[in-house]
Amino acid sequence: MRDGRIFRESWIAGVTKHYPGEPKPSYVTPWDETPEWEREAAAAVYGQVRDFIKISDGHATRLTREQKGRFVAICWTAQMFKHFEDPKPGYVADWADLPAWQQETDADIFERIEQTV
After folding, report:
1. Above 70 in pLDDT, residue 1?
2. Sign of the torsion angle spanned by Cα atoms 97, 63, 9, 37
3. Which of 48, 37, 42, 47 is nearest to 87 (CA)?
4. CA atoms of 104 and 102, how far apart (whole Å)
5. What spatial distance separates the first Cα and last Cα of the chain, rounded to whole Å?
6. What is the pLDDT of residue 18?
7. pLDDT of residue 90
8. Taking a C-beta distance cutoff of 8 angstroms, is the pair 12, 28 a contact?
9. Helix ranges restricted to H, 19-99
10. pLDDT given at position 86
11. Alpha-carbon distance 71 to 48, whole Å?
12. pLDDT tens-digit profile of 82-100?
């Protein structure tokens, strides 16, 4: 679950940096207190991004920040459908409907994973 921890720590760093005001406690819950389904989802998305970077022979680094963030968001959405029969609309919102802080955080996550590949 090391990969999931990197994802979660990147999420928390992004929320801390980009969220306007005080984030909800669940947004910054430490890894060890994160629910199991969320740990599994974080590890899965980390793996998808890592594999995407590897399959592109590293050329995914040439994507724009928006493209990187969109990829993370789509992978996360798929995990929400996997873990919830009827997920909250905010869990599966389209990129254009995500708040700017979340878009920036998703892009930060992709770039953090790039550093580990």
Report:
1. no
2. positive
3. 37
4. 5
5. 16
6. 97
7. 87
8. yes
9. 36-55, 65-83
10. 94
11. 9
12. 999 999 998 999 999 999 9
- pLDDT tens-digit readout, 14-70: 999 999 999 999 999 999 999 999 999 999 999 999 999 999 998 999 999 999 999
Question: What DSSP letter does each residue of 79-96 carry, written as one string?
Answer: HHHHH-SS--GGGG--GG
Query: Tokens standing for 99?
Result: 């708040």
CA nearest to 11, candidates 34, 28, 32: 28
C-alpha 5/C-alpha 19 separation (Å) is 20
Whole-angstrom CA distances from 85 to 78, 79, 88, 115 are 12, 11, 10, 34
Looking at residue 102, what is its pLDDT?
97
101 touches 60 (CB < 8 A): no
Contacts of 47 (CB under 8 A, 6+ apart): 3
